[in-house]
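Lab meeting notes turned into a lecture example. A postdoc, R.K., suggested we walk through two folding results consecutively so the class can see how the record format repeats. The first protein's sequence and structure tokens come next.
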Amino acid sequence: MKSALAVLLIAILPCFPHHASAGFGDKDLVFSEAEVQAAIDKNGSLERRVGSVLTITLREPPRVRLGIPEGRAGITARMDIAFLGNPPIPVQVQGHAGIRYDDQAKAFFLENPVAEAVESVALRREFEPQVRRAVSQLIAAYFRDRPVYVLRENGSAQESTARWLLRSVRIETGRVVATLSPF
């Protein structure tokens, strides 16, 4: 009996890849930076009015670099900022976000995006903190209901399993790793 159990364990053990971050029986579902960027590219642009003084326009979908900074998603975007009837000022935005899984939507979203820097030769220094807050709000609104990856009903066996057994999710350089667990 013990030898039959040992043979069974030896036979099924290779089916469960494991490494330092995964427990026994855990399996990783990985999706790439290119897949995340493709989902973001489908979202298009966004315009938001902040009070009666400021309008911010995201001219094109933001660019995302997974794992830069470490454990986060780096975000860069080009926007136009217009103050009360003045012509728009082009700005370059750099920020970062985490990632979260929404079990209801069976999808992954960028979480808590924050603009770290707003750069423009035409933007006066005293307006930078206000613009940075407004840009952070725009980025948060942009990513709030736009998933970067959705687990498909008719997807791979891993995706089907992930729909029920997702244990954790993390950002690594160039990819997102969702760890699935049978327990």
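The second example is placed directly after the first for contrast:
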Amino acid sequence: MDSFIQLSNFPKIAPYAKLFEQGMLVTVLLSLFTVMIGFVLALVLALMRLSNFRPLRFLGLDRDGHQREGGVLAVISRFNPLSFLATAYVEILRSTPVIVQIFIIYYGVFTLVELPSFQLFGFIKFDRFFPGVVALGMNSGAYLCEIMRSGIQSIDGGQTEAARSLGLSQVQNLRYIILPQALKNILPAIANEFVVIIKESAITYTIGVQDIMSAVNAVKGATFIIIEPLLVATAIYFCLCFPTSKLIAYFERRMSRGDKR
């Protein structure tokens, strides 16, 4: 196996161009579905973390109905199970390697669930693609949750008070006032997460997803060439990520320009 670059090796990998094209399509689809799943999951987690659900609130009151200033009962009364579960999820997912999460989802969860073995577009194995999307989506949701939470918290609390004075419910306030403004503020961060996922999706080839790195592995096995396929993969990732990053930066400047007027 060659360990240095040889220009004569590039024609040898040219017959496998179709594999790289398919891998690029898989990578883009993987990233799109991951961000969509991560966004929905992040919204749920952010609302859970910002909730004020305290089922044991009554334990914080003394016999006269006054709020206890301290003690075990006062601490228990402030316990929010929704916020606790969401925080635990975010911290665990952000503190463990992505590859470990992918292996747990694929070998642990989806060995118990039998997925259909059809192929999308004639070459994408659904029973490999779907676990990869789920694993990456769960990981992305943990990171997007903090972005979503900060975006919601950035909205002035006075707008919530104004919504209440107009008779809007909490759901209506969230849907029509808070979320539209929060999404505008965090849209660049969500778009940047898409670029990050394009690069991180390379790890899914370890469970058989036919992405760009899977094409590299196939070429290496057939030709015993490794450096040149890696350079091709690098060029493809660059062509996907660099223009996307510049496009995001452009729209971010346009949006910030509108806020200054």
